[in-house]
Amino acid sequence: MKICFLGGGNMASALIGGMLAKGFAASDIAVVERDETSRARLTERVGVQTHAALDAAALDCDVLVLAVKPQQMREAIAPAAGKLTHQVVVSIAAGLRLGDLARWLGNYSRLVRCMPNTPALIGAGVTGLFADPSVSAEARDIIERILASVGQTVWIDSEAQMDAVTALSGSGPAYVFHFIEAMEAAGVSMGFDTDTARKLAIGTVLGAAQLAAGSDESPAVLRERVTSKGGTTAAALAVMAEGDLIGLVGRAIDAAAARGKALGDELGAD
Ligand SMILES: NC(=O)C1=CN([C@@H]2O[C@H](COP(=O)(O)OP(=O)(O)OC[C@H]3O[C@@H](n4cnc5c(N)ncnc54)[C@H](O)[C@@H]3O)[C@@H](O)[C@H]2O)C=CC1
Ligand SMILES: O=C(O)[C@@H]1CCC=N1
């Protein structure tokens, strides 16, 4: 099975890195990348074949993964319009809807929309998937196998939910990194050097996430176990409640989902 990525940026690199680590052959993976420096990096460091354009050689694949920015998509896929025959086309772009992609591809509907995230690079991603009804069960299995090689997969029931997946898990790693930044900064302001503060912050997030992932208890119960009455954790959580952390995170994730929907509206309008 030959897999071709259109766009060899951050997310394509994360997916390819994860796939190679899980035993996919570099010779089965190609990347269409317009930037020469990125092409050289992909050939030399990652070992995959590269193409400068989405030409016949690039389209000689079974799965075409669309991994350019949403704003770049229409122009980037134009060369494939009317030239697709059997390929399953998988878009990882935020916001863009299957109906618009199908139209841009010359009414080609063997399309799957999915939303991975960057921990795919270390096999710890989580991906939401939605397929056009015309995509066969066999083709869905193939796409699921690719994404499952880089982490967990979740099929969703309606395409509209993809904006929520994007807001929660697609963008989610950035929220966690931001929280780590905040913890690190607090550590530095209390006198630690950056390395020590970072080690304490990352170790804590990693350990807590692993504990939550392996536990039958809810995150709320695990939080309560850390929180002694009248103790240090309670003092910190009171400040977080005063700042309405739960509401703030909810509003942030709502904003991400709204932005995904707006991107789909804006870019699909013409
Ligand atoms: N970065 C992330 O965490 C995630 C990103 N996504 C989606 O993945 C897509 C890609 O995002 P990133 O990898 O972050 O972007 P990026 O900007 O790092 O990568 C896009 C790549 O496509 C190339 N490109 C643009 N137009 C091209 C064309 N016409 N032909 C060939 N190559 C072209 C660019 O040179 C660039 O290397 C976006 O649609 C985004 O919504 C989805 C999940 C997570
Ligand atoms: O920020 C973005 O638009 C993309 C989609 C999910 C993660 N990065």
UniProtKB/TrEMBL annotation:
The similarity comment for this entry is: Belongs to the pyrroline-5-carboxylate reductase family.
Q: Which pathway does this chain act in?
A: Amino-acid biosynthesis; L-proline biosynthesis; L-proline from L-glutamate 5-semialdehyde: step 1/1
Biological processes annotated in GO: L-proline biosynthetic process
InterPro entries membership? 6-PGluconate_DH-like_C_sf, NAD(P)-bd_dom_sf, P5C_Rdtase_cat_N, P5CR_dimer, Pyrroline-COOH_reductase
What protein am I looking at? Pyrroline-5-carboxylate reductase
Reactions it catalyzes: L-proline + NAD(+) = (S)-1-pyrroline-5-carboxylate + NADH + 2 H(+); L-proline + NADP(+) = (S)-1-pyrroline-5-carboxylate + NADPH + 2 H(+)
Q: What does this protein do?
A: Catalyzes the reduction of 1-pyrroline-5-carboxylate (PCA) to L-proline.
Q: What Enzyme Commission number does this protein have?
A: 1.5.1.2
Does the record's keyword annotation contain Flavoprotein?
no
Quote the SUPFAM superfamilies the UniProt record gives: 6-phosphogluconate dehydrogenase C-terminal domain-like, NAD(P)-binding Rossmann-fold domains
This protein's superkingdom?
Answer: Bacteria
Q: Where is the Pyrroline-5-carboxylate reductase dimerisation domain?
A: 159-262
Location of the Pyrroline-5-carboxylate reductase catalytic N-terminal domain? 2-95
The alphabetical list of record keywords is: Amino-acid biosynthesis, Cytoplasm, NADP, Oxidoreductase, Proline biosynthesis
User: Record's Gene Ontology CC terms?
Assistant: cytoplasm
Chain sites annotated for binding NADP(+): 6-11, 67-70
Where, subcellularly, is it found? Cytoplasm
Q: Which gene is this protein's source?
A: proC
Q: One GO MF term, please?
A: pyrroline-5-carboxylate reductase activity
